[in-house]
Amino acid sequence: MKYLFVTGGVVSSLGKGLAAAALGTLLEHRGLKVILQKFDPYLNVDPGTMSPFQHGEVYVLDDGAETDLDLGHYERFTNCNLSKLNNLTSGQVYETVLRKERRGDYLGNTVQVIPHVTDVIKGRIHEVARKMDGDIIITEIGGTTGDIEGLPFLEALRQFQDEVGHENVAFIHVTLVPFIKAAGELKTKPTQQSVAKLREIGIAPKIIICRAEHPVDNESRNKIAMFCNVPRENVIQFLDVEDTIYEAPLKLHEENLDGIVCRALNLETPEPDLTEYSTTVQRIIKPSHRVRIAVVGKYIELQDAYKSIYESITLAGAANDCGVDIIRIDAEEMVNGGAKEHLTGINGILIPGGFGDRGIEGKVAAAQFARENGIPFFGLCLGMQIATIEFARHVCGLDKANSIEFDPNTPHPVICLMEDQKEVTDKGASMRLGTWEACLREGSRARDLYGRDSVNERHRHRYEFNDLYKEELENAGLLVSGTSPDGTLAEIVEIPDHPFFLAVQFHPEFQSKPGKPHPLFKGFVAATLAKKLGA
Ligand code: GLN
Fold it and tell me: What's the whole-model pTM score?
């Protein structure tokens, strides 16, 4: 097994996760089996309880682990199927150490960061190497070099390279090379200093990826190579991608990152054939058509809160040769006639998942507008609950229909808690999480789009469609087209008598890849395009 560690320097938000994922794409194209994982130095046990304002989207894995959104990049850019093993936080590390301490496992010894905390960190890498099948593990270390929380991780990795042999390990440092306008120059000093910090700890990066807005000239590369003690050809640039993040592997390949990595780790692999990948990227960059899709949500001002949804829309667009302008609209703007004002001229409406009652009435208004005006509609998780509430209220005449999440005293709890959930009060990991099977109804749109009669999809929610209202809603035209295998939980609802009105209790956005978009997203974008061309 070979090990690559990706650290970040100077500032956060450099796109380390994207660089790691893009490198994964390249190494897979060289025939290697790649495993990706992320170490997050914060003390939360997982990001499941963190606000999207602080942390962006929570990315859910097949086994129900609630993880950092970088794992979404990993799964989209590679074939690696991740589990809770692949995201380790300081919170988990300390939880493990303290549990052992209470159990008496340390036999009266003083429990310390070195070796006890570092042992748990190293243990995780060994565990991944043992349990997952692969040639190389790429581990991204969250945060920035110099952060206090990151130190135990870096120390663990320093020890780790001695254990497995330095020839099997390479550190890649992703750093910022800023351009100072007044001087008209790129500056390498911050990079020198952050690499110096790593070397102080005993870690010497073999490869430096310079994030920059301007091409990194030879002089700057020479300087970085010299001051950071790396070969000149191992200093590469990673400029901002212009059109789409899916260009990242191509850009990094132009700089021969994959070649450098293989050389650094003594891996003999053929040059990657990126023809097919480039074709997909070209289709994202230069589509023949364009549509406008509104995402009506609560965190629309944040780039990262609906990351996987935006990516899934883009990837589904490429499969339809169709670029998508995503119009992000705050749900609170939808009430009092706002829906008509904001949604007129839109080709499709998507309501994402969410928690809490802010913006709910606005989302109901948006769903109503889509249903009544024949605009393609796609609801995800909360989006399905909203579609159900809207239909119950305005088609079935159940005026005050609601989810008990938003109105515990509603006379028509069309979305409710299952009996066995009522006792759960803990907010961390108290939801239906991870992959569950759904069986699809013969003749339904869902069945048609998937092209199969049962699917596995990822979940993250507490509340469920209330079966007591199923007959009434179905009689009025809202078909339950997907259910749990035992038929008790509604997984998909749709309105057959509408150009495209489909909503799902799960999160299909977690299963899209370039060239392999999610079938429901693909169908949704196709419907928006048909609607536009037909209009
Ligand atoms: N708040 C809803 C629930 O808990 C929906 C969750 C979601 O959209 N992820 O059921």
Answer: 0.91
